[in-house]
# Entry
Amino acid sequence: MSDSRPRPESRRNVLKYAGLLAGGAALPASLRAFGAQLGFSSRLGPGLSALPVDIAEATPLATASLSPHRVALVKTTDRAAGVRQAIALLQPPSFSGKSVFIKPNYNTGDPAPASTDPVVLETLVQEIQGAGATSITVGDRSGMAATRAAMTQQQVFALADRHGFTPLVFDDLGRDDWQYFEAAGTSWSQGFAIARPVLNADAIVSVCCLKTHRFGGHFTLSLKNSIGMVARRVPGDGHDYMRELHRSANQRLMIAEVNRAYRPALVVIDGVDAFVGGGPEQGQKVRAGVVLASTDRVAIDATGIALLRQLGTTREVADGSIWQQAQIRRAADLGLGATRPEQIELLTADAASAQMADEIRPFLS
# Structure
């Protein structure tokens, strides 16, 4: 079967976010800052696209005086209160004056922890609007359902009418609405494509569930949530990116590699309920009673795995060091976050949350 993807010579002017121009005025603020931290020099004139950069050559994130590996942990069964408390505890970068893209988990429209609970989305929108964001877009691409139906089932369009944000179904995007990333340095045979509206935002918020993944991912937390940003097919492009992902022995490496394309301003994991087996759309459900927040995908996913281990989970998730889990190891090697357990700082504000943090720390190794 012939591949109808655009030829490389016709894509030389496609912006490669993996090779960010430090200080490039055309890029969103969050991505300009990320590029500057990574030390890429601007060798091109203003407005010109960066040349392809090997994704494996990225340097680790610079550390600040405030630990970049903090994870706020709130023990609660109240999703709205948990989200607000976790954000207040974490104190992420300000959303004031920024366009914000919220990436929930709508692989299907099944109830949490299969997908993002409407209360979690509504609370986040209210918090971000209250922080002075200029606009909010909420979008996704489902994997096991029709995206519009899943978003309707989880009240996204009704919430958009109520709160004035823009809902976006990635299935409706055209050919020019997808950003290609080259295969060099990845396990993707033909690279991958991410929805441009995500990358064009000033700030990206990832909203995740706490659950295992029986189709090869082993667990689906913040790193895996990014796969919903990736096209199944780009219009006019015959390659099925999701078929390649789920048939590959390198699936977990590929999941991590997609995350190199952007940096989140905030990650929230709703762990009020969790799947400790099965997943992503159905599984062995337990009441975990926790909400997590971080700006570090590796740190928050490692914490999520520790919680799953404490609760009793699958052999694939429970065996060995968390830091040798393929998603975690590849993401850490790419400089996306923490590289060892002692770097993670668990933030709590009450005795019950502090006790939960103490209980999961032994599982973080």
